[in-house]
Design goal:
single chain, mainly alpha, Fumarate Reductase Cytochrome B subunit, two-stranded antiparallel sheet, 14 helices, elongated, binds protoporphyrin IX containing FE, formate dehydrogenase (quinone) activity
């Protein structure tokens, strides 16, 4: 099996390597070296076109005839050459404003970004959220509410302290607001303008943007809070393997033992931390335009590791205009958010309608002892042993 896999990988490299070498320079004599109809059509088809023949064809100011020669100077670069220099970021520009993007007068990533944002991003994002809601509905119909199996004891155990619940609800409240306002920004043009008109949408859009930009700080603070408070309970250990092998006991009788957080919850925790951090960093890049350029450097690192080649994406571009950095930051921010939203939908389901007794943990902070015994048996024992030892040490020795 391993050999077959290696052979497949090898054959892929063998197939892809000559492909890159085969690229022969097209005959552009008919256009005097300028781009041909084939070049334009290939670009319109979205194919990669080697633009070096244009990038390098930007004239030579030093080669201009001297002023004293007959008819004076014609300059060292023609208008088309100057436009090409602007187009490829090679022109020497001085601008009155010295912002990071001020000297990039032309960048051509905008259309690619726009079509991706309106097309695949919106479509697959909507499928992902819609599909998750459908699956959760289906799961509810098949499995129903996960009930407390045993008899309730009427006794309560403290599960989360007030500060933990505060951190959780700050994270949850801000995430829901960010999710809704983010979706309004992405789908507003397609869904809200046809339904409510431009004027109403303009007000909603301005409000959404304000909420989205400002509430983001609450999300980031809460993310740090829950990381600090809960990371210790979310480190993987041996109980997680057993819990996962038994599928969390979702479809079987009896629940696998678990500590404070079971493996399913640990996966939620780490998804929130990893995706939440990625969303936060790309969000900061969008909040402070052109200040935090990460994509060209990341693409260069990935290229040096050969990852994009191995996945069939060829070499990723290592030189990006500042605007393109922003475009990638926006797409990444939205993609990571869609994935986290889908995960959080499942989390909200299990924390409310999906499981009897779960909500109390974040509501009042106290859970029914029987619920705790069924879902977090090791944790209950630890808590009770601690209680006992502290009550014993509090009792004066006779
Ligand atoms: C808005 C509705 C939400 C409800 C009703 C809810 C409910 C809960 C409950 C009941 C728990 C405790 C589970 C237990 O006792 O074991 C919990 C834990 C947790 N929540 Fe939420 N939550 C919500 C939203 C969110 C959001 C938006 C996030 C993050 C963006 C989040 C992140 C977490 C994390 C990381 C944990 C700890 C791990 C886990 O139990 O899965 N929650 N939530």
């Amino acid at each position: 099996m391993f050999r077959m896999l290696m052979a497949l990988l090898l054959s892929m490299t063998v197939v892809t390597t000559p492909h890159a070498q085969e690229a022969v320079t097209p005959d552009r004599s008919a256009t005097g070296g300028a781009q041909t109809l084939e070049d334009i059509l290939a670009r319109q088809r979205g194919e990669e076109v080697d633009n070096s023949f244009r990038r390098n064809n930007i004239g030579d100011p030093d080669g201009a005839p001297g002023l004293g020669t007959q008819l004076g100077t014609l300059g060292g670069a023609s208008d088309p050459e100057l436009w090409r220099a602007l187009r490829f970021g090679e022109a020497k520009i001085t601008a009155s404003n010295d912002g990071p993007a001020s000297t990039t007068l032309i960048q051509d990533g905008g259309m690619r970004w726009l079509t991706f944002r309106q097309g695949p991003l919106a479509t697959y994002g909507a499928y992902l959220l819609g599909g998750t809601i459908l699956l959760l509905g289906l799961f509810y119909l098949i499995r129903g509410r996960i009930r407390i199996d045993g008899e309730k004891t009427g006794r309560k155990i403290e599960r989360f302290k007030a500060i933990e619940r505060f951190g959780h609800w700050m994270l949850a409240g801000s995430f829901v607001l960010l999710g809704l306002t983010g979706l309004i920004s992405l789908f507003g043009r397609k869904v809200l303008i046809p339904a409510f008109g431009h004027e109403a949408f303009a007000t909603v859009a301005v409000g959404s943007k304000w909420i989205h930009n400002n509430v983001s700080w609450a999300f980031m603070i809460a993310l740090v809070m829950i990381f600090v408070m809960w990371v210790i309970h979310n480190l993987p250990d041996r109980t997680d393997i057993n819990w996962l092998l038994k599928g969390g006991g979702i479809f079987s009788k009896g629940h696998p033992p678990a500590k404070k957080f079971n493996a399913g919850q640990k996966l939620i925790f780490w998804s929130v931390i990893v995706f939440g951090t990625s969303i936060s960093v790309s969000g900061i890049a969008l909040l402070f335009p052109f200040e935090l350029n990460m994509f060209a450097a990341t693409f260069a690192k990935l290229n040096s590791l050969g990852i994009p080649e191995a996945l069939g994406f060829g070499q990723l571009r290592e030189t990006l205009a500042p605007h393109e950095e922003m475009q990638y930051a926006q797409l990444w921010h939205a993609m990571m958010s869609f994935v986290l939203m889908a995960i959080i939908l499942a989390h909200i389901y299990i924390g409310t309608v999906g499981m009897e007794g779960a909500y109390d943990a974040m509501g009042s902070g106290e859970v029914e002892e029987q619920w705790a015994r069924e879902h977090h048996s090791i944790w209950v024992e630890e808590v009770q042993a601690k209680k006992q030892s502290s009550s014993e040490s509090a009792t004066p020795a006779e």
